[in-house]
Structure of Oxidoreductase:
Amino acid sequence: MLEKSHYLVKEHVGVLKFSGTYDIIDPETQAPIGVAQERLGFLTHALRLVIDKRILPTTVAIAEQEDGPAVLTIQRGFTLLRSRIDILDRSGQAIGYFKSKLFSLGGGFHVYDTRDQLVAEVKGDWKGWNFKFIDANGSEVGTVTKKWAGLGKELFTSADTYMISIGQEFKGKAGLLLAAGLAIDIVFKEG
């Protein structure tokens, strides 16, 4: 799953949902290649009734099939101003982390490896729908683009669809950038 350079991510539509589930699809074949699911404890579910979910901790497991073992895990603890989101591989070892920007017009965050080296920056446009992965040298190495789902779905649901594209020269960090693309919606945008 992590060897791809293009991913289509579709959020499941749900009424009164307390956790998110996203299908990860190969855009060339339209075949499902994975799923991302928020895995929350009872207390976090209960607190989401009264507290904004962007403040509460969350864990997102990215697996090749629903309820399967995680290939990647996105974890965020309690947060107020700036979030730190840790990314773990299938063995539970850290592969990097994201640090949200304090001020950003279109949204965005920094992507770091395990040695605290800046790997990329995620920059959003003024609408907060399209994002670019910019490497430490200032070159674009990937994009996240929101796909229009139609008037009915856009007006009456918060379910989004994104295309994540990763440049060939950055495929060694595909897991980190796939997690970054998912974190845009799951961790930073959903309210």
